[in-house]
Amino acid sequence: AADNPKISGILLDIDSGGGAVDAIAPLTDALEYNRKKGKSSVACCDLCASAAYFTAIACDEIIASNAISSEFGSIGVMMSFPDYAKYYENEGIKVHTIYSSLSDYKNAPFELAKKGDYSKIKEEELDPLARKFQDAVKNSRGDKLQLDTEGLLRGRTFYAEEALKVGLIDAIGNREFAISRVKE
Fold first, then answer.
1. d(CA 12, CA 56)
2. What is the mean pLDDT of the chain?
3. CB distance 81 to 121 below 8 Å
4. What is the model's pTM?
5. Could you tell me the end-to-end alpha-carbon distance of the chain, in angstroms, rounded to an integer?
6. For residue 94, which of 106, 84, 108 has the smallest C-alpha distance?
7. Alpha carbon 75 to chain centroid distance?
8. Exposure of 53 by Cβ count < 10 A (0-12 exposed, 13-18 middle, 19+ buried)?
9. Are 39 and 10 within 8 A, CB to CB?
10. What's the CA angle centered on 91, arms 86 and 95, to 5 degrees?
11. Using one digit for the tens of pLDDT, what is the confidence trace for 74-114?
12. Do 158 and 166 touch, CB atoms closer than 8 A?
């Protein structure tokens, strides 16, 4: 789309509670490439949370698609993983995990987490990603953000009118309005 002379800009139609962190970089790289080609990008959103919001901030504008259900934020990082040990044990399956004596730190944060100690997962995995997310939001939204808003950068979500007040979005409209903003 960025290379096609018949396309004037990009509209992202976002309705997502988020997703995997590794999806963010390819999307934001594509939006940056689009910007370098001199084309605009607008995110038109209903639910735009977590990784979806991380992507939306790479656009030139973020527009709520309506004032009823559009919701923004959830600026935070989390992880979950299942522990099948009891299931396997009940099925008579014993799982053996063996590490090289030269790889004593490999998966150490996850091994600790399986024992209920989440400190290393938070310190080494989640907190660095959360800081990057917060910094990206601050850099992208700049002076628009009301940083003193409770929970703004710590996972809270906001419906459209409040999201506009606290600086998470630029406008409330509809798809046609968002298309007109891309063209402008």
1. 8
2. 96
3. no
4. 0.92
5. 17
6. 84
7. 7
8. buried
9. yes
10. 65
11. 999 999 999 999 999 999 999 999 999 999 999 999 999 99
12. yes
